[in-house]
Amino acid sequence: MSFRITGLDPQPFRRFYGLSNEALATHGVRRMPVDSSPGFPDRIELRDLDIGENVLLLNYMHQPADSPYRSCHAIFVREGAETAFDVTNEVPDVIRRRLISLRAFAWDGDMLDADISEGEKIKPIISRLFDNPYVSYIHAHYAKRGCYAARITRD
């Protein structure tokens, strides 16, 4: 089964780039300097940020479906990120090196299945989840903190 992993579109976050810390705070956003790596996984470029880069910590509605599974949570976005990760049949290092929760959803936002994995075991689980023809997309979440990581679709 061919699959595609994509990072978030940078467009909704651009309005925060370059704002003062005070202005960010009025939107519930915090700027943080990256002081360890790995440790700050960017959701646009799908990579661990380098020490010295700035990250924005903000709340993001990753599951906007009008269902009981509607959900939002904190994410990191590299300040200035412009190009969303978009790769077929590859799992980026930022996901592969962590324990990941994979949540399979139907087109209407209802969760049909879920599993956890890490490393090279992620690909077979993605394939197994997509074996169900009713699975429309999969959300990957960093399992320890429950934060949204990326969207996985059929390619």
Q: Could you name the key traits of this structure?
A:
six-stranded antiparallel sheet; 155 residues; mainly beta
How much helical structure, as a percent, in the residues?
10-25%
Which term fits the overall shape? globular
Average pLDDT, to the nearest integer? 95
Specify the oligomeric state: single chain
Q: How many structural domains can be distinguished in the coordinates? A: 1
* Strand neighbour order, sheet with most strands: 5-1-9-8-6-7
- Please tally the β strands and state the result: 9
Question: Using only CA atoms, what is the Rg?
Answer: 16 Å
Stretches with pLDDT under 50, minimum 5 residues = none
The major pleated sheet works out as: 6 strands, antiparallel
What structural category characterises the helix and strand content? mainly beta
Spatial separation of the terminal alpha carbons: 8 Å
H and E string = EHEEEEHEEHEE
Q: In percent, how much strand structure appears in the residues?
A: 35-45%
